[in-house]
Amino acid sequence: MLIAVIDIGGTRVRLGLAGPEAPFATLEVSTDRLRVADPVAVLRGLVAELAEKAGRSPGAIVVGVPGFMDQARRRVVNTPNIRELSGLALADALAEACGIPVRLEHDVALLTRGERRAGCAQGHALVLGLYFGTGVGGAFLRHGTPLDAGAFAMQVGHIPVAGEGRVCACGGIDCVEPYASGRTLEAIARELDLAIDDIFTRADPALAPRIDRFIDYQAIAVATPVTLLDPDLVVLGGGVLGMAGYPFQRLTAAIERRLSPVRPRGRPVLAAARLGWPAVLHGALEVIEEGRAG
Questions:
Q1: What backbone phi and psi angles, to 5 degrees, belong to 46?
Q2: Does residue 115 lie within any of the structural domains?
Q3: Strand 136-142 and strand 76-78: pairing?
Q4: Structural domain of residue 10, as residue ranges?
Q5: Residue 143 CB burial class (10 angstroms; 0-12, 13-18, ≥19)
Q6: What's the pLDDT score for residue 109?
Q7: Alpha carbon of 232 to those of 106, 110, 126, 140: distances in Å?
Q8: Burial (Cβ within 10 Å: 0-12, 13-18, ≥19) of residue 213
Q9: Residues 15 and 92 in one domain
Q10: CB 256 within 8 A of CB 291
Q11: How many domains does the chain contain in total?
Q12: What is the pLDDT of residue 18?
């Protein structure tokens, strides 16, 4: 069976077909397409466009959601960066619109499951995934299965930090996200009149301390769940880390400085995500297989 996978991000929506064969087609549009009164109709149209492009129809849909869902993974409770999805019974509405089953999963859980299935986390029992994009997301896998906890577990972007009173997209004050996400970089670029794509490559005395602070907050976002969960491996990814000139070694060094020295040397392994967004295709296969087993 082919699965249509919808990866909803803060700036882009990416779709692909997953199955026993290689993906037949992919599609990418601006997330602004969903910022309308009826986002379900837009998603239905995108699935139809993907199927037409591939010449094949999917038998199920898996949606990666960048926000809070209910325990049953049927309703979107809140997506701070895409308000139009908040409160929407997305799984049932999209299933009715498309006439095929729909499963929801956290976007970072799909990415992390994909990396364990076919990427940098293969063979690891305890895997923590941290992704920095428009927001900050996390997922934890124990032998391939996501953490069995409450509906609001692993919302890493909303770890409270000592800050300067910045308002998070969720409405909270001094979550780590407004200090460590792509939105943070956009604000820095506006303040210094820089192109966002140049922010890690420009040599600028005014920029350097802001980047140092940004990376330190990213390190806090990683070191906090590492301390709580003790993973074997941490997958680090997302659009921010993929930007030109991003100082990945500075990030890993900052994370290690934040971890207690009583931890065994070399644990956890810090690894860059290998697959990019297509990891969600592999992760979606796990979601469907899990559903069949259940």
A1: -70, -40
A2: no
A3: unpaired
A4: 3-109+277-293
A5: exposed
A6: 96
A7: 21, 19, 5, 11
A8: middle
A9: yes
A10: no
A11: 2
A12: 92
Counting as low any pLDDT under 50, the low residues of the chain are: 294
* Measured distance CA(238)–CA(4) in Å, rounded: 21
Quote the tokens at residue 79. 């997506």
36 Ramachandran zone, left/alpha/beta (phi>0; psi -120 to 50):
beta
- The structure's pTM equals 0.94
Shared domain check, 258 and 160:
yes
Asked whether residue 97 falls in the same domain as residue 130, the answer is no
pLDDT at 22: 60
What pLDDT, on a 0 to 100 scale, did the predictor assign at position 259? 95
Are residue 204 and residue 252 in the same domain, yes or no? yes
117 within domain boundaries: no
Q: What CATH number does residue 190 fall under? A: 3.30.420.40
**C-alpha dist (Å) from residue 258 to 8, 152, 215, 228:** 31, 25, 12, 13
Alpha-carbon distances, residue 145 vs 104, 115, 204, 280, 281 (angstroms): 15, 13, 44, 15, 16
- pLDDT given at position 80: 86
Contacts of 292 (CB under 8 A, 6+ apart): none
Q: What is the pLDDT of residue 249?
A: 97
Q: Rounded distance, CA 270 to CA 253, Å?
A: 10
Largest CA distance in the chain: 56
Q: Which of 149, 171, 140, 147 has the alpha carbon at shortest distance from 158?
A: 171
- Single-letter code of the amino acid located at 141: L
Tell me the pLDDT tens digit for each residue of 60-91: 999 999 989 998 999 999 998 899 999 999 99
Q: Are residues 126 and 227 in the same domain?
A: yes
Going by their DSSP bridges, the two strands 126-132 and 136-142 should be labelled as antiparallel
The answer as to whether 211 is a domain residue is: yes
